[in-house]
Specification:
The chain has helices at 18-41, 46-69, 75-96, 102-136. By secondary structure, the chain is mostly helical. The structure holds fe (ii) ion (FE2) (2 copies). One fe (ii) ion binds next to helix 3 and helix 4.
Amino acid sequence: MDAMPHGLLPTELVIGHPEVDAQHDEIFCRIESLKNVMLEDGQPHYAELDSLVDFFKLHFATEESCACAAGIEFSAHAREHLKSLRVLSRATADLRAGRLDLRTFLRYLEYWFEQHINDFDKVLGHRLEDARERANRGL
Ligand SMILES: [Fe+2]
Ligand SMILES: [Fe+2]
C-alpha cells in the first residue's frame, strides 16, 4: 500500500506505522468523498457507505494482526473496535430507514474516528515502535 496516497490525515494524528497511517488516511478520504457527494446531489450513497464499513473491518483486522505479530496485548482495543462496528451497523440501518441524517452521521463518524486514533491507535503506535526497537536490539 502507498505510504500516504491522499494526504487528508492530519499530521497530529499520524501514529508512525506506515500501513496503519495509510489506512487512516484512506478512511478520512472516503468520509470526505461521501460528504462531497451528499453536498452535490443530496442523496446518501449506500454502496460507498457499505464499502467504508467494510474498509473499517479490514482496518481493525490490520491493527489487530500488527499488535498480535508484535506480541502486544490488544483486548481492550479489540473490544472498542467490536463496539464501533456494532454502532456503525446500527447507524447504517438507521440511515436506510430514514431515522438518521447522513451528514450528521458523517460529522459524528469523523469526530469519533479522531478520538479513537487519539485514545487507542496512538498507544498502539508507541507500542509497535517499542517492539520494533526491542527486535532491533535483539531482545
Ligand atoms: Fe485505526
Ligand atoms: Fe483502532
